[in-house]
Amino acid sequence: MPEESCDPPSSRPALNLTLNLDAILAPTQNAAVLSSELVDFMFDAMRKADLSRKPANEATQYKFKTPEISAAERRAMFENWLFSKGFQDLMRGVRASLEQAYLFLELLTRPQKTKSDTTLMDFLAPFRRKAAKLNFPDLLDQVNGKLPESLNFVDAYHSLQRARNCLEHRNGIVSDVDAPAQGVMSLSFPRVKNFYIRKEQEIELEAGHIVDAEDDSEQVQIFTRIELRERRFSKGHRLSISITDFNEIAFACNYFVSDLAAKVGAAGKADKQT
Length: 274
Description:
This protein is mostly helical. Helices cover about 50% and strands about 10% of the residues.
């Protein structure tokens, strides 16, 4: 067992770690890009395919007997699987990015000491374990407590979770489990809103939007934020999600972690200055 050092703190060896903010961005950005591309590809493939017939696969000897279903039923089944998997991947990505942000902020905001024979993996393990044990709201609270400006994604995360559960476990049909409040399932899906201010009102920018003639376009400032778009589904109805909805949600998840990484970087700079 190594002896404890009796050297004064100033003479003890120090290990400098370089924290790459890409480690925060990567999990969610990879999930957003991959899931969006797969959804786009599969929707295009379904548009071209004859969904009234079971897909043929001559490359395997295994054949499964399945009941005859209509093109609409097969399309709904495929969409449920795609969106369920897509939401799952996005949620995992956001969670992984937030856990990485938690690790960085712990290292940035308090001095760390360890034994000289400790490996980097062993040194980081307690932080990773603590982050993994926290539920999403508490994890976000822990991160927000060390950021110069708080972020909010809890309602969006829970809505993605409820939507995924409905798609995965109930074939996308809203049940009593999904709609405990007066038979209505309320979801708040994230979206990115770009807007400018005109006469104290927010004017959203959309494709083909032209700045109003009353505005001085040279002085117009464009703002961006994540906004929740509420969707309501009655019990017994299908949870209908479009490809546009999914891509909008994926982009909002990507924007959230971009904002998160920027704020973690700002927290690191502020800590160095103090």
